[in-house]
Hints:
alpha+beta; Beta-galactosidase, Chain A, domain 5; eight-stranded antiparallel beta sheet; five-stranded antiparallel beta sheet; 18 helices; 33% helix; 22% strand
Amino acid sequence: MSTRREFLKWGGIISSATLLLPLKSTASFLAPNFKANRHLFFSPDEFPEMRKRIRLPLFRKFWQEMLKADLKADEKFLEKEIQFNNQIRHLARADKILMRESFVYAMTGKKNRGDLARLALQKILTFKKWDYFLSDGKHVMGLQRAPLTVKSLLLSYEYMGDAFSKSEKEAIVTQLPDKGLEPCYRSLWGILHPAESAGWGFDPESSYYEVRDMHRWPIILRYTNLRAVPLSALGLGSLFLGKDFPRYREWMNIVQKSYDDFKGTYNPDGSYPEGTSYCRYTSQELILFLNSLYRNTGKEWYKDINWPGTMDFFLMTTMPSDTHPEGHVNFGDAGGGFGSELGFWTADRYGDAQAQFAAKHLSQYHTPFSIWWYNPSLPEKKPEGRWFYRNYGIGWVVITTGFKPKDFVLAMRSGGPANHEHADRNSVIVKCCSENLWVDNWHPPYNHLDPGWPLRTSPAHNTVLINGKGHQYHNGLEGTNASKASAKVISEKTTEVYAIVSSDATSAYHWVTPDVGAVVRTVLTVPDLKLVVVLDRLKMKSKAASFRARWFIDNEDQKGTISFHGSQFVFARPKGKLVGACAGSVGVRLEAGTFPVPQKYGTFPYLDIHAGQKAKDVGLLTAAVAVASGTENTSVTIEGEFPRWKIVGKTGTRSFEIRMNSIPLVPEFEVNV
């Protein structure tokens, strides 16, 4: 559409979409001999191989869970409990039932599974609206539930085949454009034309509502998962309806424009700024479309993104612990891992043995597409090395010794703003011995009015505070969107023994404290020793300030403790602990506290390492070794004075000595281990 008037005119057409019966608004566009693309994802002749693969030991648990689903509970929900204005929960559940049951029917031919799929379909088609966002107060926007419903209908159309009646198939084809695809088009159009886009907001008729200022959402969503999801759905729906459908050219044109604008959200190295959880969501939706596009047209859009690099991003951020066995480095709202479908697709498409390894051994779940894309003839290869260093293009630095709960992981959050971020620039997290020892708190509430919202701010992270304040963050009225805060890696060095990286977050703090001169954090680690050294160099331009570095321990199960004596401290969990010491250029004072949120959110103990007095130029040094609980032969002490401190200690049978010159903002180290 070339003008907003035409855009809204089309929006007026679709508002009458309702039940199972064909809709005049769409039916009038269908030629008498219209036929949808039945084989968008796969062909029936692939089913026999699928039925063999699904019984492999690799997929046994997944398949058993599918077979043992609580059908009575699902039937009761669909027959008696479903609310047709509850898109966020009830429509999503109906979609998931439809996808699961139609897939099981395709694999087994069991009538009761097909019947439940048909019941779910009927209920989905009864929803007046498939999403809970509106533009201009009346036109449905496809951002989450409409795209999910499009996908569920397209998949069930292929899985069920002729088990769907002619009228059921016609209902899918009839309702899909108006209630699913045009809302997706509308959201993509709005993001491409934010100045002309009508006001966005929640649907007052929907059961879901929160206070949000959405007038900038067409801008905010440009490089987020909520653009990729409708993009994928509209592309799939267009391919399904085919080139003879009147809206095909218009829809595919905006899909291509949106994809060309969005694909750069992925860094050239494959990393993704919203973090692992949203990288998973975005990627699994995109590859469904990109693979179908290639399968049906030969177009290789998928090559525009470094998918092997994305799998490396997932692999190297793996951070399982006792409290989070599924854990990944959880800066911002991240922390969840990936599904095997992305790994198996990447392995098959690129011959990537590392992706094959990750998908087989480290993925969090399987989907039907895991089985479709799994190539058992491909080799797998576990990355080799005593430890691995990554400085991803999004600004995340990760050092890891491996992918099991016992392994050591250290990560630092540098980089720029991103959707779903927290106020966590230069934050450091440490995992070892199956425990999160320095931890970012996991996934606080989205709603800015929720008392748990402050868990997103700097004081709730392992960051530096200046006069008690952290760096810039927004008030949440617009959602979990990006702030203005940035940090940048300014120096890094790796050897076979250690890694050193420095990140400058001065600009992030300048938004709150204009007098700040420098906020630079340098991290040194000797992964084999599980040794961590953190130096914070802090300067003011004109006025002396109070500085402190804050460190949190995992306490989700109320089993995290912090103890200290003088300048020595211990962060303890049931299976592991951090034994350390600290020092300051103007002295140092330790103080324990608990972050002030209501008890229902948990208890969040922290240790503050205060500079001994206000100053304009401060160095704060923190050094610690991670060891298994019960280990006694461990010590860390700091000798000398600023700027030439010496860190000495032992862990097990090994000793270490770290000499440093802290005069420059980027310190100099001499490492002897």
